[in-house]
Amino acid sequence: MFGVTILGNNSALPAYDRHPTAQVVTLNEQLFLIDCGEGTQMQISRYKIRRSRIHHIFISHLHGDHYFGLIGLVTSMGLLGREQELHVYAPPGLEEIVNMQLKVAVTSMPFPLIFHTLQQEGMLIDNPKFSVECFETQHRIPCWGFIIREKKKPRKIDREKAVAHDVPAAYYEKLKEGLDYERDGKLIRNEWVTFANTPARSYAFCADTKYYEAIAEKTRGVSLLYHEATYLKDLEERAIARFHSTSVQAAAIAAKAGVDRLLLGHFSSKYESLENFLTEAKEIFERTELAIEGVTYKV
Amino acid sequence: MFGVTILGNNSALPAYDRHPTAQVVTLNEQLFLIDCGEGTQMQISRYKIRRSRIHHIFISHLHGDHYFGLIGLVTSMGLLGREQELHVYAPPGLEEIVNMQLKVAVTSMPFPLIFHTLQQEGMLIDNPKFSVECFETQHRIPCWGFIIREKKKPRKIDREKAVAHDVPAAYYEKLKEGLDYERDGKLIRNEWVTFANTPARSYAFCADTKYYEAIAEKTRGVSLLYHEATYLKDLEERAIARFHSTSVQAAAIAAKAGVDRLLLGHFSSKYESLENFLTEAKEIFERTELAIEGVTYKV
User: Is B126 a catalytic residue?
Assistant: First the structure.
């Protein structure tokens, strides 16, 4: 399972029961929370997200609609008796705010709360199963996007063929890595005795940004790209002035980046209906969907 | 109109679609917000509270379930273009937190945001129409209750009688204040020519507290007392340990204080049903109601 569940799809002002930005990415048994607007802990309860499985929280930038819910979520985890580490990746300043909020309440968390400061593009987490990297967007204040990638999956052994070719079982791990096998000067090609696995998938969360072509390069070829689309195309000037994007700008980035699918979110509270976002974006990039709260999109 | 609308009636952990503490007191055209837990701005929208009429916000203490929603509400007011002053009465520390949150967002409010530090019991606002005072409760950290009082209302002129007694119209304002009239050595008693007005009403919000008898003195005779009741009576020991009250303790305070009516809130997320709070409290103090979100209780 690799998917993203939308907890909030609205921009700064909550409206029409749409909430500020928050998403949960599920990768097998691991949950990642990306952004944490006000009310995220309620949305987590509403959509039955298992908060104990969240070990990593990524905060794109320090506009309130992307982090005001963090302190409530964290202190509730404390009240629920959490003991596991919680890692928060955020721009400088958030740790100080959270610490001050804990201090005035004369409280401390019963679990290690570990802050990692976002300061340059690159790898945040890299382990045998997945990696998370961050990249810069162009917003009014420093702002980061995140890419979560499955690791390249091992090939699958075709046991019948492997046995027929007399490959010893001890060599199977090497076969999975794609190596050929050599015996008595004879080469057994890897592809004769293995199947390809499904390709490794990747999800890019592109946080608040104005239209910024470099994002297409940074997110090239991901399976699913989330890109903000605060306004419809007729409000491009407003989008530029406020460092946000329009429906068609998001779609243009998706097309340039050659991604499989595009997910639009961060809709302005100007819009009660979201249909036009989809219509406009699909004219540029057909494989577009709208981020709807409570819905899980497969990566 | 003098009433209180409940926006959040739950204690720290949001549960069963109950929210952390927040209440709006309406006194004629004036709205007062008391406490502002996470999600208050959404509750304000949900229950169609006119946020532009809120000029005073009172924060009882700096446990998150009583103030985490403040920064979101304030910044949304800014986005909506508010220009009127907003006064926030809170314990020391909150102003610094809010300022730091504005600073990291590189933003400032388009209206004067004025903090008043709660440091001693007494009058916070005193004008010809109403007064607001604060009093200390006993909680794990410094915590304040608030009393909002209408000013004593002028008596009403009984015009027929006043004319019959030859009281000049120029003296009517004095009659309204309760003074007698003297003419040619003859005394016209005030009550002969006026009616009593309805008595001035008062609302006391008693924030988080353990059972603390002094509160009965501080809130003596108010029309409506809100008192926290985090637990049912069988959990009195837990209530003591956590500086909270039980249903029957709240009712005992109401009885001792001689208030007209009692409103219970701040229910623990342990309880899905709230019925027992009412049953237990009514055994001690009959005129008790439960604070239910979205409901307005007349003072």
Answer: no
Are A55 and A160 in a shared domain? no
In terms of residue numbers, what domain contains B7?
2-153+200-298
pLDDT in tens, B89-124: 999 999 999 999 999 999 999 999 999 999 999 999
Same domain, A191 and A218: no
- What's the CATH number where B215 sits? 3.60.15.10
Note the ipTM here: 0.89
**Total number of domains in chain B:** 2
Please state, as a whole number, how many other Cβ atoms lie within 10 Å of the Cβ of residue A199.
10
pLDDT at A14 over 90: no
- For residues A73 and A138, state if they share a domain: yes
Largest CA distance in chain B: 74
State how far residue B36 is from chain A, nearest Cα, in angstroms.
Answer: 12
State residue B162 phi and psi, 5-degree precision: -60, -40
Q: In chain B, where does DSSP find H-type helix?
A: 40-46, 70-79, 94-104, 159-164, 172-177, 190-193, 214-218, 236-241, 247-257, 275-284
Using the beta-carbon criterion (under 8 Å), do B71 and A64 form an inter-chain contact? yes
Cβ within 8 Å of B, A 17-46: 19, 38-39, 41-42, 45
Kindly tell me if the per-residue pLDDT of B197 is higher than 90. Answer: no
Greater confidence, A295 or A151?
A295
**Are B41 and B122 found together in one domain?**
yes
The three-state (H, E, C) secondary structure of B15-66, written as one string: ECCECECEEEEEECCEEEEEEECCCHHHHHHHCCCCHHHEEEEECCCCCHHH
Chain A, 128 to 187: residues with Cβ < 8 Å from chain B are 140-141
Residues A187 and A246 in one domain: no
**Chain A contacts of B13, Cβ < 8 Å?**
76, 79-80
CA-based nearest residue in chain A for residue B76: A13
Name the closest residue on chain B to residue A79, using Cα atoms. B13
User: Under an 8 A CB cutoff, do A141 and B105 touch?
Assistant: yes
Q: How confident is the model at residue A197 (pLDDT cuts 50, 70, 90)?
A: confident
- Give per-residue pLDDT as tens, A70-86: 999 999 999 999 999 99
Position B153 pLDDT exceeds 90? no
Average pLDDT, chain A: 96
